[in-house]
């Protein structure tokens, strides 16, 4: 089973069609990594693949896809805008573990003022509302992560795999399309004060995610410390390396 492959198979052609896409370099050793976990009958191949692109308005569009059998499927898909745009991040964390499914989808904001919400959250709220009944709030959520999410944050723990394949997949498509609509409308920022605020907000977000990556433990177990830390800082959340 590869639960999230259809999500990638949807996203990559869509961004190819809608953006002036170019490849984004993936450091050697990170395009494809595998290991075998467990012993005897529990032996399981775990494959992690990476995908990355950029466009004139988007600094990095990247996906990390972990495939390790029925009880381990992850697609973490994040879009980091160029630092001269005040666009939110597109953040999708689609996680299937032995304990169940955990889904996070959002346009993660740089700022929290009313004007920013009107521009970047309000257009998403109708989509969010459309899925609220079928994909209700998932409960327990780290307090310190709250500043990084918008009012349209879809956080849910579907009981059925079928709900992931149908409703979550539809929500992912709607959120990604709506994000690309925001990108279409975005104009570059030139005010130096505003540019400094954008850079600070991007660094806060990316440094938080690199520091608190919930996948760190999993990657450490599979691939060791050196690979994991370089993957996190040199690919998944790499802004500091490119300033
Ligand atoms: N999460 C990532 C990356 C992943 C990834 C790069 C490549 O940011 C996977 C893989 N997320 C992943 C895994 C788990 C989670 C959980 C494997 C399960 C961890 C475990 O239970 O062992 C949203 N993701 C989570 C959780 C949240 C998120 C809230 C629950 C774990 C927890 O309580 O911390 N997405 C995540 C998050 C931000 C975000 C915290 C913050 C800005 O954008």
UniProtKB/TrEMBL annotation:
The keyword Ribonucleoprotein does not apply. Pfam families: Fe_bilin_red (PF05996). The keyword Ligase does not apply. It is an enzyme of class 1 (oxidoreductase). HAMAP family: PebB. Catalyzes the two-electron reduction of the C2 and C3(1) diene system of 15,16-dihydrobiliverdin. This is Phycoerythrobilin:ferredoxin oxidoreductase. It comes from Microcoleus anatoxicus PTRS2. The lineage of its organism: Bacteria, Bacillati, Cyanobacteriota, Cyanophyceae, Oscillatoriophycideae. The gene is pebB.
